[in-house]
Amino acid sequence: EEAVFLRKKITLLRAFSLLIGSMVGSGIFISPTGVLKNSGSVGFSLVVWFACGLLSMFGALCYAELGTRITKSGGHYIYILETLGPLPSFLFLWAEFFAIRPANSAVVSLAFGRYMLEPFFTPCAAPVPAVKLVSLLGYYMVLTLNSWSVTWSARLQTALSIVKLLALALIIVPGMMLLAQGHTENFHDAFDRQSLVLDKLPLAFYAGMFAYSGWFQTSFVREELVRPERNIPLAVIVSVITVIVGYMLTNVAYYTVLGKQDVLASPAVAVSFVQRAFKSLISVVPVLVGLSCFGTMNGGIFTFSRTLFVASREGQWPPLFSMIHIRKHTPLPAVMLMFPLVTAMVCIGDIYHLMNFFSFSRWLFIGLATLGLIVHRHRHPELQSPFKVPLFVPVSFTIICLFTVAMSFYSDPVNISIGCTVVLSGFPVYYLIIHRQMLSRCRSPFYYLTHKLQILLEVVPQEIKTY
């Protein structure tokens, strides 16, 4: 007989765990190869890692202000909707559902499968079909948990955040010990300008920003946060600083033990590191890394389901996906929607092509969201936000995002063109279906199907009492 709605269960500790758990995932264990390959040298790759961390901090501060100005959940989607209007917000939703999120989830899932199987096949590479099977099993486990309980999903995220920091420590400590002993040969001629290719730098930034991606996750669950005006900025600042320091030390540790060619040749850098530096942990670190990826999958499903939930509530997505399970109080339909696309991308995808494919769309819309912050400030100067960043932060972040997106057309025209096509394909859908339906406010043509699915899944709209 209690009201059905999403409870405020995300405390400061859980918000911090959600951010750490989403940022520290597969990225730091697979992205070093992509960053080094496209930056050309060890020194420039470290500069890219630090620049990506600084850029992430700028973006995180912008989103912290947006989270205190706009009180709805939904992240990028709701910020673009409230500041730039319904068309760009729907294009984001379209690209996020059909390109960004399934590709991102597939990358993390594949990294999970690769690292979990690595100890069983060392020194050989794990068979690709086995990697994909384990990847899908891991993804389905997280999907089931998020459908079952918000509380247990949050508890799992907290526990796995500790595992992630432990995995980084097991890489950083032996690396720093070897560096202190004078093993600096891999840093000689670190800034080799001959290997630097400027038109590949956007891809290096994409790989680095993929590793940091997750600093925006609290904005997706804003309505479920306890004391969001205080906890969003606090969790964002502490978590991003923690991750920047951890990532820089981890990369220095990698390069202390592995040479440039070793990093470029390794499909799983953390495993190659342990094989060379700490053989007694050869079976432990890959499992820790796999669990780290598992936490990132959990955070991704937890937050993106809220985007679909809010978009449905705003009338830009089928109404079924704004409904909540009557007993579990989870957005069950929104959680379950992603699994067919993720399954397809895991079965056919390659990690680095998928990364470039979805990065274009992701950073385009993140840049638009921070542009929306500038617009919102101009339209509502009377609004007193409890957290406010200097204007140069959103301006510089927006310019860098949009410039990187534009430059990426020269770096990887095929994958970027595919991503651009996915975004543009949302135009006819918006004008033929969404815009027309919003104007007429008519009943959805899928009303009967929605009603049957509602009974089958035991879900009802938010804040409706069940008797």
From TrEMBL:
TM ranges: 12-30, 42-64, 76-100, 120-142, 162-183, 203-221, 233-257, 277-297, 332-354, 360-377, 389-410, 416-434
Source organism of the structure: Calypte anna (Anna's hummingbird)
Domain of life (superkingdom): Eukaryota
Keywords for this protein: Membrane, Transmembrane, Transmembrane helix
UniProt-recorded name of the protein: Cystine/glutamate transporter
UniProt xrefs under Pfam families: AA_permease_2
Membrane topology value: Multi-pass membrane protein
Cited InterPro entries: AA/rel_permease1 (IPR002293), AminoAcid_Transporter (IPR050598)
Entry-linked Gene3D superfamilies: Amino acid/polyamine transporter I
GO molecular function: L-amino acid transmembrane transporter activity
Main location: membrane
GO CC terms in record: membrane
Locations listed in the record: Membrane
